[in-house]
Amino acid sequence: MTELVNGLKDALEYTRLYREQVFVVKLGGEVLSSAEALDNVAIQVALLESLSIRVLVVHGGGPQASELSRRMGLTPEVVAGRRVTSPEVLEVAKMVYGGRLNVDVVAALRGHGVSAVGLTGIDAGLVTVHRRPPVEVTDDAGTTRTVDFGEVGDVDSVDTTLLDVLLPRGHVPVVASLAADGAGRVMNVNADTLAARLAAALGAEKLIYLTGAPGLLRDAADPTSLVAFAAPEDLQALLGSGSVKGGMRPKVEACLTAVKGGVRRTHIIDGRTPDALLLELFTGVGSGTMIVGEREKRSYEAAGR
Predict the structure, then answer these.
(1) Would you give the DSSP letter of residue 133?
(2) Can you give 39-99 as a three-state secondary structure string?
(3) What's the CA gap between 168 and 53, in Å, rounded?
(4) Is residue 90 situated within a structural domain?
(5) Strand 289-292 to strand 265-270: parallel, antiparallel, or no bridges (unpaired)?
(6) Are 188 and 250 in contact (CB under 8 A)?
(7) How far is Cα 69 from Cα 77, in angstroms, rounded to an integer?
(8) Could you give the CA distance from residue 84 to residue 174 in angstroms, rounded to a whole number?
(9) By residue range, what is the domain housing residue 33?
(10) How far apart are CA 270 and CA 292, in angstroms?
(11) pTM of this prediction?
(12) Pairwise CA distance, residues 14 & 184, whole Å
């Protein structure tokens, strides 16, 4: 009992600091693959909301989209962690992201008393995109080639009007990674990128990626190579070295976007680990990788935490 009371006292500093602040939580497909993991995340989000923290949830669902694609006779293609989206694969994305997974997340949150609202980037003009032109990409094998990603959108703008109504009223928006251009043409958007752009537009205090990895690793094959703390130049060096591969690449790039956009701290943690979100936010120990800008890094180090 004493340990519990001391834990609550230690958390008091953080709860005061975070009250009324916006946290953007991005759920990866690995977390969504497990009903138990999703339920655990829902409990943690419910606690954050009860502390008057304004939570926005963003999700993709890459593994689920790949699974349904194969069942439909389509071969998934992912280059440098980003999905090539043919018109047929876009239909899969609509069904998986905007349909089943969005409903599952909203239902899990409702099960813990959270007033969750299912959305996509299309709703109320939340996110406007343009179709990505063919671009040169260096893949995980180190080969540089021109890739046409198909029906994939790059973000032009974010209109937070709807979120500005929902968040202060205690609702938790759950945004699936679909958006549209000005003519209403629907496109797939990388969920990591979408979360970063939403976090920057909202002036979020934190952006947290809940993944199937323990955090950012210097060597993906070595779980002991965790990068616990990083600044933008550290990330640039890791990206340049080629050690960041697969789905971690868009996350690291998105963290850079978020930090440059004014988000104070971004985190990459294993969302399948019980209470990982709370441990990262309310204890000095943490549970994954924290990424901050240069000024925030100096402040963090000066405070000794």
Answers:
(1) P
(2) HHHHHHHHHHHHCCCEEEEEECCHHHHHHHHHHCCCCCCEECCEECECHHHHHHHHHHHHH
(3) 9
(4) yes
(5) antiparallel
(6) no
(7) 10
(8) 24
(9) 20-303
(10) 18
(11) 0.92
(12) 42
Cβ(248)–Cβ(239) below 8 Å:
no
Number of H helices, E strands in the chain: 12, 16
Q: How many CB atoms lie within 10 A of CB 52?
A: 12
133 and 176 in contact (C-beta within 8 Å)? no
Structure tokens at 38: 């999703």
pLDDT for 236-264, tens place per residue? 888 887 778 888 888 989 999 999 899 98
Identify the CATH number of the domain in which residue 185 sits: 3.40.1160.10
Structural domain total, the chain: 1
Residue 99 burial (C-beta neighbours within 10 Å; 0-12, 13-18, 19+)? middle
Give the up-direction half-sphere exposure of residue 193: CA atoms within 13 A in the CB hemisphere: 21
Whole-number Å distance between alpha carbons of 72 and 78? 17
Are the CB atoms for 77 and 83 separated by under 8 Å? yes
The string of pLDDT tens digits covering residues 79-110 is 988 999 999 999 999 999 999 999 999 999 99
The DSSP bridge partners found for residue 78 are 83
* Type of residue at 192: D
97 part of a folded domain: yes
**Measured CA distances, 80 to 142, 147, 150, 214 (Å):** 10, 10, 15, 20
